[in-house]
Design brief:
- By secondary structure, the chain is mostly helical.
- The protein contains 18 helices and two strands.
Length: about 450
C-alpha cells in the first residue's frame, strides 16, 4: 500500500509539473542516472542506508563499485568537456546505479527473507533520493500555482515574538563569512545528519535480519511528504525575499550562493534585517513564479526537531550532535532570513505531531497516542489560523499573545514527552541471588 501510494504521488506530481512546464520527479530521477545529480551527498547517504542490509564485505564492494562508476562518469565528462551546472554535484550517479543494482540482484538472485531484506534496504535508500526530487517538484509547483503570498500576515504576527528573524539576521551578519558559511554547511547537510542517526538506529539490521519498528527515516520522509501540502494553503516566501534583496544579500560572503534570478523587484520593501515591518493591516501580495512558498511551517525546523528527538537514545556524542544540529538549524533558518519566528513554532508542533502519529500507528492506534495527535493537530491549526486572521491582534497585545504562543508550543512538547515516556519499556528488575543456608 505504501509503494502504491508513493507511485501515485510520483505520477500525480509528474503530471502537475508538466502542466506548469517544469521537470517532474520521475524525469528528474531518470536524468540523474546519466547527468550530474542535484545532491551527490544525499545520494551517497541513500546508499549508506541501503548498505545496512549488507555484510561488511558486501558494503566495501558496493561502495567501491559506486566510487568506480563515479570516476568513470567524471572521466567521460572531462573528455567531452561537460561540467556540472550550478547547484549540481560532480558525483552521485554511481551510488544511484548501485542501489538499483542491489534491487535487481534481490529480484533475480535471492529468494525468501533475503530477497525481502535486500529489497527493503534498496527501497529505503532510493526513497531517500526520490524524496529530494519530490520536494524539489513540490517547491516549484508552489511557486507556479500560488502567485499571491501571505508574508505580510506572518511578518505582522511576528511582532508578538519580537521579530526574531531580524534580530538573529543582524547577529549572523556580525559574524561575517565564517559564521554564515559554517551555519550554511549545517543547514544544507541536514539530510546527512539524519542518515548518521538512522545508521546508528539500524546498526543491527544485518545480524537481526529485520529493521527496527520505528526509525528516523520514516518521520523524515513523512514530514517531507505532508509538509508541502501546507505550503499550498499558507504560501509564504520568507523575510529575505519579501522584505529584502533575496539571495543577493549574502552573495558577497557565501561560498555556495544559490543561483536564483533577482527577487528584489517583487519585495514589499527593503527592510530585512535592519528595519522591522511597520505594524499595519496586512494583505496578500504578488510574488514571482520562481521563489518557493516554503516557509509555513519550517520543515528544516521540523526535521532538526526529529533528529534531536531520535538522537536522545544514542551515545553521548550523538546526543550532543543532535542538540548542536537543532540549535544551529534554528539559528540558520532565522539568521539567513528564510523564516519568521512564527514558522519555527509551527514547525516544532508539526514535527512532534507527525512523529506521534507514526508511533501511534505502530501501537495499533493507541488511544493515548490518538489524543496526542489530535491535540498536536489542534494546536498546529490554531497557530496557522491566528497568524492568518489575528496578526494585528497578536502584535498589539504581544505581552499576552507571546506567552500564549510559546505556551501552546511547549504544551505539545510536554504532552509528547509524557505520552512517549509511558510507551518506553520498563527496565527489568535486577536479580538478586537468594541467600543459601549455611552448612553446619
Amino acid at each position: 500500500m505504501a509503494l502504491l501510494a508513493l507511485l501515485g504521488l510520483l505520477v500525480a506530481l509528474e503530471f502537475t509539473a508538466r502542466h506548469y512546464g517544469i521537470q517532474g520527479p520521475l524525469t528528474g530521477q531518470l536524468h540523474d542516472l546519466v547527468f550530474p545529480p542535484r545532491s551527490g551527498t544525499q545520494t551517497y547517504g541513500g546508499l549508506a542506508l541501503t548498505m545496512v542490509v549488507l555484510t561488511w564485505r558486501q558494503r566495501f564492494t558496493a561502495l567501491g563499485a559506486a566510487v568506480g562508476l563515479d570516476l568513470a562518469y567524471a572521466a567521460l565528462r572531462w573528455a567531452a568537456g561537460i561540467h556540472p551546472h550550478h547547484g549540481h554535484s560532480a558525483f552521485g550517479n554511481g551510488a544511484l546505479w548501485v542501489m538499483l543494482g542491489i534491487a535487481v540482484l534481490a529480484l533475480t538472485r535471492r529468494t525468501g527473507p533475503d530477497r525481502v531484506l535486500l529489497l527493503k534496504g534498496a527501497g529505503l535508500g532510493l526513497l531517500m533520493v526520490v524524496a529530494r526530487k519530490i520536494g524539489d517538484t513540490w517547491l516549484l509547483i508552489t511557486a507556479k500555482s500560488r502567485p499571491m503570498v501571505l508574508d505580510e500576515y506572518v511578518a505582522v504576527a511576528d511582532h508578538a515574538l519580537g521579530n526574531p528573524s531580524w534580530v538573529v539576521g543582524r547577529l549572523v551578519e556580525a559574524t561575517g563569512a565564517v559564521g554564515y558559511n559554517t551555519l550554511d554547511i549545517v543547514y544544507g547537510q541536514l539530510a546527512v545528519a539524519a542518515v548518521c542517526v538512522a545508521l546508528y538506529q539500524m546498526r543491527n539490521v544485518v545480524t537481526e535480519r529485520r529493521f527496527p519498528r520505528h526509525h528516523l527515516v520514516r518521520t523524515f520522509l513523512a514530514i517531507g511528504a505532508v509538509g508541502p501540502a501546507v505550503y499550498m494553503v499558507f504560501p509564504v516566501v520568507g523575510p529575505l525575499f519579501a522584505y529584502g534583496t533575496g539571495t543577493e544579500h549574502w552573495a558577497g560572503i557565501a561560498l555556495w550562493s544559490p543561483h536564483m534570478p533577482p527577487s528584489a523587484p517583487w519585495a514589499v520593501a527593503d527592510l530585512w534585517p535592519h528595519t522591522t515591518v511597520p505594524l499595519t493591516a496586512p494583505h496578500a501580495v504578488p510574488f514571482d513564479g520562481i521563489t518557493p512558498r516554503n516557509c509555513m511551517p519550517s520543515l528544516h525546523t521540523a526535521w532538526a526537531t526529529t533528529i534531536f528527538v531520535h538522537s536522545r537514545k544514542g551515545p553521548r556524542a550523538m546526543r550532543y550532535a543532535g542538540t548542536f544540529w537543532l540549535v544551529a538549524t534554528l539559528t540558520a533558518t532565522l539568521g539567513f532570513g528564510y523564516h519568521y519566528g512564527a514558522d519555527l513554532l509551527a514547525g516544532v508542533v508539526f514535527a512532534l505531531t507527525v512523529e506521534a502519529a507514526l508511533r501511534t500507528y505502530d501501537r495499533a492506534w493507541d488511544r493515548q497516542g490518538l489524543r496526542l495527535v489530535a491535540y498536536g493537530t489542534t494546536v498546529f491549526t490554531a497557530l496557522l489560523l491566528s497568524y492568518r486572521f489575528l496578526p494585528v491582534e497578536l502584535a498589539e497585545h504581544r505581552w499576552l499573545t507571546a506567552p500564549l504562543l510559546l505556551l501552546a508550543t511547549a504544551s505539545v512538547i510536554l504532552a509528547y514527552v509524557r505520552t512517549t515516556t509511558t510507551w518506553e519499556p520498563s527496565p527489568a528488575p535486577a536479580r538478586h541471588p537468594e541467600p543459601q543456608p549455611e552448612l553446619i
